[in-house]
Structure formats: C-alpha cells, structure tokens
Write a structure and sequence with these properties.
The complex is a heterotrimer of chains A (about 400), B (about 350) and C (about 350). Chain A has about 400 residues and is mostly helical. Chain A has 2 domains: about 45-140, no CATH class; about 170-390, Orthogonal Bundle (MetI-like fold). Chain A contains 19 helices and 2 strands. In chain A, strands 1-2 form a two-stranded antiparallel ribbon. In chain A, helix 10 packs across helix 16 (about 300-330). Chain A is elongated, with a radius of gyration of 29 Å. With about 350 residues, chain B is an alpha/beta fold. Chain B has helices spanning about 1-25, 35-55, 65-75, 85-95, 145-150, 170-175, 185-190, 190-205, 215-225, 235-245, 270-280, 285, 290, 300-305, 310, 320, 330-349, and strands at about 30, 55-60, 80-85, 120-135, 160-165, 210, 230, 245-265, 325. In chain B, strands 1, 2, 3, 4, 5, 6, 7, 8 and 9 form a 9-stranded mixed β-sheet that branches. The N and C termini of chain B lie far apart (about 65 Å). The radius of gyration of chain C is 24 Å and the shape is elongated. In chain C, the strands form 4 sheets. Chain C has a 6-stranded mixed β-sheet with strand order 6-7-8-3-9-10, with helices on both faces. Chain C has a 5-stranded antiparallel β-sheet with strand order 13-12-11-14-20, with no helix packed on it. The two termini of chain C are about 30 Å apart. In chain C, helix 2 crosses helix 3. Chain C has 2 domains: about 5-235, 3-Layer(aba) Sandwich (Rossmann fold), CATH 3.40.50.300; about 240-355, OB fold (Dihydrolipoamide Acetyltransferase, E2P) (Beta Barrel). The chains are: A mainly alpha (about 400), B alpha/beta (about 350), C alpha+beta (about 350). Chains in contact: A-B, A-C. The interface of A and C includes residues 296, 297, 307 and 311 of A.
C-alpha cells in the first residue's frame, strides 16, 4: 500500500513537473527579469568604472573637474561593447535629454588618436547637469524608476520630491486606469449578472445560443471588435443614425473619442469574463432555493437580495476581478476609441518598452500594476476563504 | 514502465524538435510597415528577388518601436534579417550596435543616393512626408494652406486630427504660431520654445481627435469625423486611388523624413539581406514604387525615371520640397522620451 | 366535513399538448392531512406546484378559504412548502433559515428570536441553531426545513416528497413526527408522495393519482380495503387479481365465475349485472392455507415457492390457485415447494372491481 502510494506520489510530481517548469520558464523568470530591470542600474557603472571612482568626491554643485573628464575619456576609449555603450547612453539620456547626441559625438571623436579634450568636443561636458546625470546613475541599484512611476524623483541632494507637474502624469494616468477599470467592471456587472441569470434560466438550444452570443466576442480578434465599435459609435455611425433618424436628438451624441465610447467598447469585449463565472456559480445554485424563498414570503426583489445575490457573490467577485484586472491592462481599445483623456497606463508602458527601450521605466510601472493586482487578489482570497468556511 | 517510456519519448521528441528548428536554415526575413505599402513592396521587391535568388523570402510587418529591435538583437539570433526603420531608430540602433554596417560598394557607391539616405548602418528606402490632408469635396471653396489655417477653427470649423505624440505635433504647433520653418528646431531646443508649442496646442485641445495608427486620420477624414488631419502623404494619395477620394496634401509646412533598410546585428541571413537591399535600391526596381505609393525615391537615378504625373505627388519633388522641413533626427533622439512624458502629462490634464 | 380550506375546481395543466393534470376536482378541509399518491408523472407534484403558486393552471380555478388564488404570487399565498431536497439556504445558519420567513413578514427581532427558539425546540434541534446547513445530517436538515415551513404558521403546509432522501428508519420516525405535529397543531397538510405505505401511515385521506386524474380518494382504510379500480388495487399494497364474470347474487355476496369455471363469493359495493366482466381483488394476508375443508372460496394447489421475509412468510402457489401470493404469519409452519395445500378466504375479503 505504502509502496504504491510512493510511486503514485512520484508520478504525480512527474506529471505536474512540466507545468511547473512551464510556469517558471514562461512566467516567473520573465517577471523576475522585468522586476529586476526596474531596480537594477548597472548600465553606467559597467562602462565608467574609473569615472565612478574619481567622481565620488565631486560636489555636484560645482563645475566638473579635469580629472573626471580624463577618467571619462579613458573609460569611453576602453569600452568596446557597442550595445553596452548604447545601454549606458539610453540610461543617461533618460535622466538628462541630450546625452544621445553628446555621447555619439564624443565616442566618434575619441576614436581618433589625437582627440581633443572633452570640453572641445562638446561644450555640454562643462555643464554640471550632464555630470549629475552620470553620478546619479553610478549606484548598481536605483529607485528612480519606481519613484518616477508615481511621479516622484530625487533632487540633487537626494531627497524624494514630486516631479514638476508638466513633466509626468503617471499617477493621474494610473488613477484614471483604475477608474476606467472600475467603470467597465460595474458596467459588465450591470449587464452580465442579469444576462447570466437569463442563460441559467434557459435550457437546451436557447442556452447554447445565449452562451454562444456572449462567447462570440472571445473568438474574434480584439482589433476587429474595436474597429467594429469605431464604425458603430462614430458621429455618422449606426447608433447616431438611429438617434437622429428617430428625432430623439438633432445633434449626434458624442460616443467616440471619449470615456463613454471606451467604456462601451471595453464592456463589450470583457463581458464574457463577467458572465461566465457568474453563470457557472448560478447553475450550481440549487433550483429550489428561489421558489423556497418565495414560498416563505420573499417577493422577487427580496429573494434576489437575500438569497441569489449572496450565493452568487463568489462568481461576482471572480468575474469582477477578471474584468478589472484585464481592463487595467487595456491598450488598443482606449487608443482607438478613446480621446486624449482616456489613455491608460498600458500605453505608457508600451511606449517605454517598445518605443524608447526604457525597460527600467516599463518594469517599474509594471510593478505598480502588479502590486495593485496582487492586493486585489488578496482581497478576493479573503472573501472566498470566508465563503469556503461555510461549506 | 509504460509511463516512463512515454515521458522519455516525449522528452526526446521535444529535444529533437528544438534542434531541428535550430538546425534548419531560416529563410531571409524582411520586415516592413505592412498595409498597401508592403503589398507594393511585395510586388516590386520581394517576389522578384525571391525568383532571382531562387530561394523563398518571408515578409513580416511591424509597427515600429526601438525596444522591439533591441529586444530581438539582445536575445541573440534575431528572427528578422532586414527591417525598414525610421530615421531615429536607424540613428539609435547604429549607435547601440544593433545593426550591421552597410557595404556601400555593393550598392554602387554612396554618391548614387540622396545625402539623407546614406548612413553607416542603413540605406534609404523611401522619403515620406507628414502633411495636412483634407477632403477637397467637403471644402470646395479651398482648403487650409498652412498650419495657421489648421489651427483656425473659425475659418474651418470641425475637428482636427493629429498624431498622439510629441513628434511632428510640436513642430506643427510652432509653425502655426508663426515660427519660421528654418528656426523650428532652434526654438524647440529651448524650454521656452517647448512651453510655447504646448501653449499653442492648448488652443485647439478640445478640437483634436488624436490618432495612433497611420490609417486612422484618413478613416476620420473619410467618415467626416474630422475636417482635416495630419497624415502620411503616401496614404493620402493611396486612398485617392483606391477609394476614388479627392483628398489634398498641403506641402508647405510638411515634415519629411527618410525610412531606411537595416540589417539586424548577427542576423542569420545578413549576406542575403545585403543582396536584397542592393536589389531594392536598383533604379529599375525602385522606380516602380510611385506607381503604387507616392513616396520619394532615395536613388537619384530612379527618381529621374518617374513620370511627371507621379512626380507631382512625391515629397522629393522640387516644388513640394521648397517649403517643407526635414525632420531633425538628432533633436528627437535626445528629447523623444522627455517630451513624450511631458506630452502624455499634458494630454492627461 | 369541517370547514373547507382548499378547492381545486376543474383544474387542468398542460405543457404544450401534454396535459399532466386533467380536469381535476379536489376539496381539502381545514386541519386535514391529505396525501397525493401516485407514480411519477401522474400530476401530483404539478398540482402541488399550482397550489404553491409556482405554476398557473391552464384551465380551472384554485380556491383557498373561498378566494381564487390563481393570480396571487407565491410570496403572498401564505403557504409553507417543504421541498424534496430541503432547499435550505446554504449561506444562512440554521437559526437564520428559520428566521427568514418571519423577517419577510416584518416580525420584530425579539419575537423572531422567541419563535425561532420555539420552532427549533419543536423539531428538537435547539442545540444546532448556529450551525450551517451543510454541517447537518439529512434528517436534521429535514427538521430545519420543517421548522422553517411551520414557524410562520401558514394556512397550509405543502410537502413535496420530503422524506424521499432519508433512509428507512429515519423516514419512518419522521412520518410519525410529522403526523404528531399535524395532530398537535391542527395543520392543514398536503403531502405528495409515491410511497403508498407512507401515505397510509400519515394521511387522513389519500388521493390516488393516475395520468393526471384522481382514480380514487378516501381514507387509508377505504383505499386499501375497497379499491375502486385495478390501478388503485395494484398501486396500494400487494394484491391478487382474478378475472371473472358475474354469475349472480347470493346471501353472502356476489357470485363470480372465474375463467377456469370455478366460482367464488365476493363482496361488492355497486350493482353488478350478471354476465358483466369483473376483477376480484384478494389481499395476500387475507388468505389462509388449510387442509381441505369443503365449501366455497377455496382452491387446492401446490406450493410453487416459499420465502421467509422477516415479519411474514411469502408463499407463491401454482396455476391451479391462479398463482396466488399469500402472506402468512412468520411463525406459521413451513410449506415446502411441491406440498399440496388448500387456499381459503372469506367473501368479505374478496372485493369486486370493474376492470
């Protein structure tokens, strides 16, 4: 008995191992890499070890010294990995715009044997701001990305201060992202719950049809769905044609390039994620509970509030969680249907990742999203644990 | 026992599969901007080259993004060989060592090309322009002639569409504010100039529909959503041809730039890639492009072979070029990130 | 009969072309315990559902205390329903389940607490008020359901096979408990079951359902001793049915000639005319096995099989005695298969039915 148990244990591990491996390789490892990108800051230190030594004693309020310039020139001459130099330049340019051209001009000039001193190659080398960018990037780890993700930065003396208002709006965009996510979740709930009840109350081909109708969007490409909404919502689109045609309003309603359009389109796209969990909970609720409530004197509304709603809360919670988490990651729909004020945090992340290759910033914003998501998940976990204790 | 065998077989098969894919040579992969532009390239470059070389050529589309290229090269053994990139990506990637150097001798020498099409790491593929587009059928009494007209919502009522990003948009705002076209980048290089550009944008904030994909502004124009838009010139003439529209391009104040072919560092088919770039740069092949899309040709000889009718639509034609502005690549590689942050912050207000 | 509580007035219920209740009439008095007994699909549950308000009659009316209730929604009908699978609310404690109908009626908190305690006491579950339903056994859940259906003192208590999921001992205990509650509280109970012994045990009257109609309604004794149709005779208990024709009348009862020419005397309620085809029902426990006696109402036969069934001995006779099944006292002498016997029965125990 114990022998077969041991074998069963082993083969269970063998069966689960590929999944673990898969998760580790395709999920945990990239996630860890992204997160370490957000705090690791070795790009400059790797290329400029001598400069780091010399600049340690430099007062950032004073002009750069000749030793620092010599050390930098020596470091740059010694650097032979073009991609590593590129990483350093990108890091410095992100702290101080202008480093791109400054660096490429400098490295090109330094390739010649009789290169002039740095100040002659480019006068920006006399500007302490560029050197502050270098000395600010010499620690192997940094919190600047994480701070910048919430619109904070360190001033010259190292104190955490708010960024100037016009420089960055990550916090606003983040709050907006959660707000849109919440709106979409509510809209999905308002439509999804009655719809799930409708599906659960039907049988046979009608149920299949209703399920199919809600699943269909899952099988079409996001882009196609979004484009379809564009056509429907625009000023001379389907909805406005009906509204003006019926004389409800002489002016077309503003349904596109604003929050309304984004919420409508995202709600449609994400509705299945709300309907399916609620539906699966609803069909597991014994069919005689609502009649029982009615027979005990509960009118339909009270029966719903006291019996059906509490019993389907787990479905509502997981549906809301799914919709919200997916919604805050949305990118294409707000970009195509939304207006200027509807940009969500994902498009900012996408800009940093693919647009400017600032993986640190992308990782930091990703971490903020991840933390919020995990917090939500913890709340959900507590909710469902409370539910679990009853049965 | 059976289970063990099965696991071992699966593992073996997996390993064999992996090694097979790595051992199999990948076909030359060329990546461009997709859409009708890539359809044209397929006809005049990709198919003929594959026939000539006797080997298949894969083509893929991308949407730009320096991070994409960087990620591919850093990961090692990139699965793309030749990519068409924008000027900043060329400059950045060349500095960061993401691209192979170009063997200009195989292209017949640097002097055969426009000056702006020659680079250590890239060969110009097209010259294209971002300009005001409007529907002449909807504005029969004459459309906008300048960026000040674009900003004038009383003279030309209706929404506008601009690219959601600081590039071009800030330049256009300064032009609308009366800055001379030759001083645009000098003004933009100062903090006051940037404030000035954003202040000008603020004037039409509520009238702007922002676009992100190149096809969007023309969709907006076609549906009547906006009265005028900034758009890529090739797309404007393209939609005139395919959908029989009467969209006009306003050349003065347009900004032109060069897209280039590059070869990703350590790409498997870099030799074949170089052959392809040479093929796509031959005047006989390149001259066919304006028949499909109205982009300027970097090969001087090819440019001469284009018919007069087509010439009128190209950004490189003398009268279209006179009042146009060349994109300042250096400015944007230095400032793109900071200005995009500021632009996003401004949008979010 | 005492005061009328419920009347089904020519009620018909059809689902599409299938009518599961067909032009049915039934009166139930206040304080009466009526069982609706029948095989599944006979319409008994549908009738209950119509009474509870979950279904509307296709035709006809249902009256409660003289008022038509067809348009009254369930929650206003004031009927306690005990469901087959208890239908306890899994997210409420036992106490909250029982408090639910009182809360719906706006009863004050203190009174709710008191009445819940009393209801729990009544079903002997006072110690379990704070448990979740899932922590209770089937019998305990059934008691909670019962307490919940009774706590608000409804006009009528409807029970839809409430004991079907319990094991035999528990079921029999619950039958007696419910019967006792009925007697103590003077409840009007409509009880749906397909278990004839349950119906016999509990009911004041039994309505036997078949194919949407009531075949017979009466006290358990009437139903058992004097079935009016072959269906009722077969459905209630075990019986031996013999086909025959009416030969005439004698002082003891009706003379019936069987197919093999033998004649017997049976009791009958109706007027039967000679030559009419009839069935004779003889309950197995009313037949004796004796030595040859001489006289009426007896067959000699061989024992085909003999089975000891605990509380009785089941004897199967051969075809000479029409394959009779006989229940004998468990202490009766063994009759080995093949033994020659005489089966004998009183005319009072032979009941004539129209086929």
């Amino acid at each position: 008995m114990s022998g077969t148990g041991g074998k069963g244990h082993l083969s269970a591990i063998a069966l689960v191992a590929p999944l673990f491996l898969f998760i580790a390789v395709f999920f945990l490892w990239p996630l860890g890499t992204m997160m370490s990108q957000a705090v690791s800051d070795t790009a400059v230190l790797r290329i400029l070890p001598q400069t780091a030594k010399v600049a340690a004693s430099w007062d950032p309020e004073t002009p750069p010294t000749a030793e620092m310039k010599d050390a930098l020139a020596a470091d740059l001459r010694a650097a032979d990995d073009r991609q590593a130099v590129g990483d350093m330049t990108r890091r410095l340019n992100s702290a101080q715009p202008g480093f791109r051209t400054l660096m490429s001009r400098t490295t090109r000039a330094l390739r010649k044997d009789d290169a002039p001193p740095l100040s002659e190659i480019d006068e920006r080398w006399d500007d302490p701001r560029f050197w502050q960018a270098i000395t600010g990037a010499l620690s192997p780890t940094t919190d600047r990305y994480l701070l910048a993700a919430v619109d904070l930065e360190r001033d010259v003396s190292g104190n955490i201060v708010a960024m100037p208002e016009e420089a960055s709006a990550n916090r606003d965009i983040m709050i907006r992202t959660f707000w849109i996510g919440a709106l979409v979740t509510l809209a999905c709930l308002a439509i999804g719950f009655p719809y799930a009840m409708l599906i659960a109350s039907t049988e046979g081909w009608k149920r299949q049809l209703l399920l199919g109708a809600v699943l269909l969007p899952l099988w079409t490409s996001l882009l196609v769905r979004t484009a379809a909404w564009f056509i429907i919502l625009q000023d001379n689109g389907l909805i406005n044609a009906v509204i003006t045609g019926l004389g409800i309003s002489s002016e077309p309603l503003a349904l596109i390039f604003n929050r309304t359009g984004v919420v409508i389109a995202m709600t449609h796209v994400l509705l299945p994620l709300m309907v399916l969990p609620i539906y699966s909970v609803l069909i597991s609720i014994p069919g005689n509970l609502m009649p029982a409530a009615a027979s005990l004197g509960a009118n339909p509304l009270r029966a719903f509030v006291r019996v059906l709603l509490p019993l389907s809360l787990r479905g509502v919670a997981s549906g809301s969680l799914l919709v919200f988490m997916t919604a805050i990651g949305y990118y294409i729909t707000p970009a195509l249907i939304g207006g200027a004020g509807d940009q969500m945090i994902s498009s900012v992340i996408a800009f940093y990742a693919t647009g400017s290759a600032n993986w640190g910033m992308a990782g930091a914003l990703g971490i903020v999203l991840l933390v919020v998501t995990l917090l939500l998940y913890a709340v959900y976990g507590r909710l469902s644990a409370a539910e679990e204790r009853r049965s | 026992m059976k289970m063990k065998n099965w696991l071992a077989m699966t593992a073996l098969a997996a390993v064999a599969g992996f090694s097979a894919t790595t051992a199999n040579a990948r076909d030359l992969t060329v990546v461009s901007w997709g859409g009708t532009y890539q359809d044209a390239q397929r006809e005049i470059y990709f198919k003929p080259f594959a026939e000539k070389a006797g080997k298949p050529l894969l083509d893929e589309a991308w949407n730009g993004g320096y991070g994409v290229l960087q990620a591919k090269v850093k990961a090692g053994a990139p699965n793309w060989d030749v990519v068409q990139v924008e000027a900043e990506e060329l400059e950045l990637g060349c500095g960061d060592g993401l691209f192979e150097y170009i063997d200009w001798d195989r292209l017949g020498g640097e002097d055969k090309f426009l000056e702006s099409a020659v680079h250590d790491c890239g060969v110009g593929a097209i010259v294209w322009s971002t300009a005001i587009a409007y529907d002449a059928d909807k504005l029969p009494d004459g459309g906008p002639a300048s960026w000040s007209d674009f900003w004038d919502t009383e003279k030309f009522p209706g929404k506008r569409s601009l690219r959601k990003g600081p590039k071009y948009t800030l330049e256009f705002a300064l032009l609308a504010d009366g800055v001379d076209k030759d001083e645009i980048y000098d003004v933009l290089a100062t903090p006051e100039g940037i404030d000035r550009a954003f202040a000008k944008l603020e004037e039409i904030r509520d009238d702007v529909v922002w676009w992100e994909a190149g096809a969007q502004p023309l969709q907006f124009l076609a549906s009547g959503e906006v009265a005028m838009a900034s758009a890529y010139n090739g797309r404007i003439t393209g939609i005139n041809r395919t959908e029989d529209r009467n969209f006009k391009v306003v050349w003065p104040g347009s900004i032109y730039a060069v897209d280039s072919w590059v070869i990703l560092k350590d790409a498997e088919n870099r030799d074949a890639g170089m052959d392809f770039i040479a093929f796509a740069s031959e005047p006989e092949n390149q001259k066919k492009l304006p028949e499909y899309v109205a982009y300027g040709l970097p090969n001087n000889e090819a440019a001469k072979m284009v018919s007069d009718a087509q010439k009128a639509e190209l950004p490189t034609t003398e009268e279209n070029l006179t009042d146009a502005i060349a994109l300042d690549v250096d400015f944007w590689i230095d400032n793109s990130e900071a200005l995009t942050e500021r632009f996003n912050a401004w949008l979010a207000q | 009969m005492s005061e009328l509580r419920i009347r089904f007035d020519r009620v018909t219920k059809c689902f599409g072309s299938l009518c599961v209740v067909d032009d049915l009439e039934l009166d139930i008095a206040k304080g009466e315990f009526v069982s609706l007994l029948g095989p599944s699909g006979s319409g008994k549950t549908t009738l209950l559902m119509m009474l509870a308000g979950f279904e509307r009659p296709t035709k006809g009316r249902i009256l409660v205390d003289g008022a038509v209730v067809d348009t009254t929604p369930t929650y206003k009908r004031d009927m306690g329903v005990v469901f087959q699978n208890y239908a306890l609310f899994p997210h409420m404690s036992v106490g909250d389940n029982i408090a639910f109908p009182l809360q719906m009626r706006g009863v004050g908190k203190a009174e709710i607490a008191e009445r819940v305690a009393r209801a729990l006491d009544m079903v002997q579950l006072s110690a379990l008020a704070d448990r979740w339903p899932a922590q209770l056994s089937g019998g305990q859940q059934q008691r909670v359901a019962l307490a919940r259906a009774l706590v608000f003192e409804p006009r009528v208590v409807l029970m839809d096979e409430p004991l079907g999921a319990l094991d035999k001992n528990l079921r029999e205990q619950m039958q007696l408990d419910i019967r006792a509650l009925h007697n103590r509280l003077g409840l009007t109970i409509v009880f749906v079951t397909h278990d004839q012994s349950e119906a016999l045990t509990m009911s004041d009257r039994i309505a036997v359902f078949n194919k949407g109609k009531i075949e017979q309604i009466g006290t358990p004794r009437e139903i058992y001793d004097h079935p009016q149709t072959r269906f009722v005779a077969n459905f209630i208990g075990e019986t031996n049915l013999l086909e025959g024709t009416v030969a005439g009348r004698s002082a003891d009862g009706l003379r019936v000639r069987l197919a093999n020419g033998a004649e017997l005397t049976a009791s009958a309620s109706d007027n039967y005319t000679p030559g009419e085809n009839v069935l004779v029902s003889i309950r197995p426990e009313r037949i004796r096995l004796d030595a040859l006696h001489g006289g009426d109402n007896q067959f000699t036969a061989k024992v085909a099989d003999s089975v000891y069934q605990g509380n009785h001995l089941r004897i199967q006779l051969d075809e000479q005695a029409h394959d009779f099944v006989i229940h004998l006292d468990r202490k009766a002498e063994q009759h080995a298969p093949g033994a020659d016997v005489t089966a004998r029965f009183q005319p009072d125990d032979c009941w004539v039915i129209r086929p």
